[in-house]
Amino acid sequence: MALLHRPRSEADSHVSRETPKPKPTPTSWPGLGLAAAGALVAWGVHRLVPGVPMLTASVVLGIAVAHLPGVRSIVRGPARPGLSLAGKRLMRIGIVLLGLGLGLDQVLRLGWATVAMVSAVVAATFFGTVWLGRRLGLPGDQPLLIATGYSICGASAIGAVSEVSGSDEEDVAASVALVTLCGTLAIAVLPLLQGPLGLSDLSFGRWVGASVHDVGQVVATAQTAGPGALGEAVLVKLMRVALLAPLVAAVAFSMRARRRGVRTSSGKRPAPVPLFVVGFLAAAGLRATGLLPHAALDWAHTAQEALLAAALFGLGSAVHLPTLARTGGRAALLGLGAWVVVAGVSYAGVLVTT
């Protein structure tokens, strides 16, 4: 995992990256209320325009609010503690609930050949994107976070890895914005390629599941080829989501090795595997038992989307467009390169396994 090494600035060499985690305080409520309002508006946008995923709308709204005259001073002032809290704590809870949507028994029915194919796609996309990002000179943890978003499940995966890497809010927000944009473009582009690439409906569904980032984007893209393609796409996508836990654990182990002997601000050593990853696995295992009624799963899905939407609104509000513009060209080039890698490797994998 040497590729995970992040070039450190001169300032970083004198300051530990182990910063205190935000905790709920009375000063957090304005920001938390704003994040909840942003999630509610994003839900309304999705209801009015179903083609716009709720999580995508949340990021865009967060970025917009952070730059609106008269509002940005609130976002960067009294609301900042609560927005930061939403981007971290609510993201963790949402990721745990994401495990309840992971049908491990269904994923395993796809067979070991498909498991191997998806694992190869994830590995090639992750390491290829990190390598290319470093070569392009992207700052901070952006290469790591963009690689995670492309290879696993978009914004949710970025949030999970940022928790163990201690990434700056601006790096997280910029990565979420890029991955969300490219995943949204896939909804329009990939259906146009089904015919030229000679893919059947079922093969197209597998290709979409192996190459598109967010679960909502996968559904929106695959449904154009019918219910059979949609079913295959969702199963393959869930298999990618299942790799979130081992990837986060690997990043945590790498960071722990680099910081061996370093303690957090609370005086404790970093945990080898974050608790929210354990919670994600436990939720997936609980779902596999079949003990939970459908009503509970539906409630958990609604809560998961609401929490992730509020968290992504908080992350979007941390984006500073002038700063982002300085690396916009390189970030866009990395996004294009990563898109080519994940689409190409997954297409080859689908041809081999079907």
Q: Would you tell me the overall average pLDDT?
A: 79
Could you tell me the strand content as a percent range? under 5%
Radius of gyration: 19 Å
Helix count equals: 17
Reported for the largest beta sheet, the result is: none
3D shape: globular
Helix content: over 70%
- Succession of helices and strands: HHHHHHHHHHHHHHHHH
Kindly state the number of beta strands: 0
C-alpha termini separation: 32 Å
Structural class: mainly alpha
Unreliably modeled segments:
7-20, 261-270
Short description:
By secondary structure, this protein is an all-alpha fold.
What do these coordinates show?
This protein has helices at about 30-50, 55-65, 70-75, 80-100, 105-110, 110-135, 140-150, 155-165, 170-195, 200-210, 215-220, 225-240, 245-260, 275-290, 295-315, 320-325, 330-354. The chain has about 350 residues and is mainly alpha-helical. Helix 6 packs antiparallel against helix 17 (about 330-354). It is globular. The model is unreliable at about 5-20 and about 260-270 (pLDDT under 50).
